[in-house]
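Much of the work behind modern protein science is quiet bookkeeping, done one molecule at a time. Below is the pair of lines this work produces for a single protein:

***
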Amino acid sequence: MDISRKIFKTSLILAGILAIGTAGYVVIEGWGFFDALYMTVITLATVGYGETHPLSTAGRAFTIVLILSGISILLYAVSAITSFFIEGEIGKIFTRRRLMKEISRLQDHYLVCGAGRIGTHIIEELSKTGREFVVVDINPEAVNRCGVFARGEKDVLFVKGDASDENTLIQAGLERAAGLFAVLPSDEDNLFLIITVRQVSKKVKIVTKSVNDSSVKKLYAAGADVVIQPGLIGGLRMVSEMTRPAATNFLDIMLKEGKGDMRVEEIEVKSDDIKFVPSEKIKNAVCLLVAISGKNNDYRFNPPDDAPVNKGDCLIVIGTTGKLLELRKII
């Protein structure tokens, strides 16, 4: 049971026993409200102040019942309050507030909806490449796993809740996000998630997975921008390992987790002042320009150093994670 609900329930029980005790003394002994309330409190607290007024036999019998039931309730209340402190609930509350404050400051970040097997790999790669992101998952164990990933000195930001719930997504900053990974366990869950996302944001880019081939068209129709089929990619990868292992291993160095710090990265040209490829900056960052991607997804491979570029073009560059981050800031 959630600790706040536990304390709320305990408070209601305490209020109830106070009300019953007060009403009992009023009815049985004919006392006034305050005297009856005072007698109930000192009885439940077992402080031994003595009887407010002389009690009748019926009143004493009622007091015995009140003491026996009151002690049990007080012990339950004390255990609930003690657990609130001992289990670190106050620390959790402050941590939660700090995380939500950090999330509220994010802009153009990514949402990872689902911290399962695929979601875990996404989290690791986003962490390694220095992206800002928020994990959304309803499973407490999945949320706890987020703590093992570090981005420098920062904790992984997460929102515990139903990813298909609009309020949960808004808490994670969906309205300010650049993209969302829909990697919930089933195609049906991802389909419902995408529909919910599109009700909140039309511009956010959605990348999702499809377990069944028959779900691909439905996911696109719901609003997904990219649908990845793990089964299809796995099959193609197996063929590549068999027929072109050298090329596959080379790409692994840059694309696969655990094979080094090299990455293929895209850096968008966001300034009108950049008219040509910033070749010197790329060379100084010890990076390699592979291609230029235009707005219509047309590619110019191995472009010359003085190749023209326009605002919105993407430079496809190879380099280490640290150097690519430096280059991104410069450009």
Q: What stands out?
A: Confidence is low (pLDDT under 50) at residues 148-153.
